Amino acid sequence: MGLTPLTTYTITITSNNGVSDQDMSNELGRQVSINVTTSSPPSSPQPLALQSSPTGQPTVLTWSEPQYPYGVILRYNILVSEFNDSDTATVRGSVNGTTLRYDLSQINLLSSHYFIWVQAVTMHGESDLSLPIQYFMVMSSSTVTSARASSSIVTTLSTTTSSGTCPSVVTIPYTTTVISTVSQVCSSTAAVCSTNDVVQSYSELQTTSSVLLSILGVFLLLSIVLHIVTVTLYCYMRNRKIKESYKPVPAVLSMKECAATDIDEESK
Questions:
Q1: Which of 21, 179, 198, 222 has the greatest number of beta carbons closer than 10 A?
Q2: Which residues are listed as membrane-spanning (predicted)?
Q3: Is residue 4 part of a domain?
């Protein structure tokens, strides 16, 4: 297994000539205490969570200290990467080693979907990255809400009470039952969750849907008008062609009229 870094071990050295027993009365004189100073970086911070800030938005990132710090934690680095580029994580913020929370509103994040990690740092090096947490955000005119405009609304909630914790990610069907769904999910964990973000996100998605439906209605109306004009023009041209092909022949004598004319000429 090897030696644990920064741990004191006692090593006892004895000799044996194979004839007589070792005199153990002077045992302390044969002991040497050494301080193992093998350097090793700390283990990674414990699983991350998101909590609501005083404004009600789930932007406060929290974590627990490493299980094996192997020294004094000097600082924690906050690393961020976009969802489609999870292999490239960059340090976007840091806090001192005694702080176990970070307000993500301090980072200038664009409207997107992110992965976030935390890394512990000591004088012996940097720890491995913690397990990532997914962070969804949509910028509005006054606040930042956690949502994703797709077939469902995804909101990050982690308001903790003494009786439980809300799930870190709640997926809600894109229906009008969004609020009741959140209540059911939160009550199942015996915790109190804020639904302000969900309400605002759902309203934004409703507005977007209304605009799309209006545009679709305009295109549908234009296609109907174009169809009516096309059919009317076709019928007009067809009727005109039929009338021209059936014009009456001017002043043609019938057989009866011709016969009467011949009789009159013979009598003369």
A1: 198
A2: 211-237
A3: no
Q: Encoding tokens for residue 18?
A: 């194979």
What total number of domains does the chain contain? 1
Q: List the domain range (segments joined by +) for residue 117.
A: 49-203
Beta strands 49-51 and 8-12 are unpaired
CATH number for the domain spanning 167: value is 2.60.40.10
Count other C-beta atoms under 10 Å from residue 114's C-beta.
Answer: 22
Say how far apart CA 116 and CA 83 lie, in whole Å. Answer: 10
Q: Is residue 126 part of a domain?
A: yes
Residue 235, in any domain of the structure: no
3-state percent helix, strand, coil for the chain, nearest multiple of 5: 30, 25, 40
- For residue 24, being part of any structural domain is answered with no
pLDDT tens per residue across span 12-54: 666 666 665 555 555 555 555 666 567 789 999 988 998 877 6
- 90-111 pLDDT per residue, tens: 999 999 999 999 998 888 877 6
What gap in Å lies between CA 156 and CA 177, rounded to an integer? Answer: 18
For residue 101, give the amino acid letter: R
Other CB atoms within 10 A of residue 19 CB: 5
Q: Residue 79 is encoded by which pair of tokens?
A: 């690393």
